[in-house]
Amino acid sequence: MKTLLSAAAAAVALPAIAYAHFLLEYTTDTMIEKPGDVPVKLIFWHPFENGHVMDLEKPQEFYVIHNGEKTDLLDTLEPIRFTGGENEGAAFKGSVPVKRSGDYVLVTVPQPYYEESEDIYIQQLTKAFLNRNELPTDWMNPVGLATEIIPLNKPTNIIAGSTFTGRVLADGQPVSGAEIEIEYMAAEPDMESSAASAPKVSPMPGGAVVAISDDNGYFSFGVPKAGYWGFAALGSGPATEHEGKELSQDAVIWIRAWDLE
Ligand SMILES: [Cu+2]
194: CA distance to ligand 1 center in Å? Predict the structure, then answer.
């Protein structure tokens, strides 16, 4: 629902075209005080506009990196339903064991999703970050995805009003000229119910917020508001085809901003 739509498809898909789809790895908190299992929801959605929910299949991979060690979390996933402002779709609930101090980098490699309105597949390789006791251990390191965004600011502790800089990589090399869609999680998922909470802001009048990576793969964004912000580098990955159709292999990262109080 972004580019390359035929006129007919655009007419049908118009309400969704201006905003971006994002795979969410949602936790209510990013700083984890008490050790234990942290619930996480995986939702494929349009979170800025509280828009269309896409059906998420069981991911190919879902794991966490802590102190450089990978722990597979696929077995923690259970199918759930999630209701956004427009519809209900298939999503997943999982859990992340958080014990020792440090960063916990959540990684999801979803199945390619067939987007009928564009006749392409979309695969968003997604990272989100938890931290315990402020100890930095992993957030600045690549996790080795085919494409990923490396944060240059600690992603769990961004000040609203400051900036966030990321670097887009594919096969470990910088990607220049990548189109990065930027989105605010306006309506955070409610962990108890299966629905979105009430949106805190309206989407932008001009549609998707976009940055382009520079010659060395870097981009920066002034973060205007506390909450969760997502960045999706579109088609930055090396895979370009799935089952005979075009594949957009995207790198997604989620950061958390806070008001300075
Ligand atoms: Cu979309």
Answer: 21
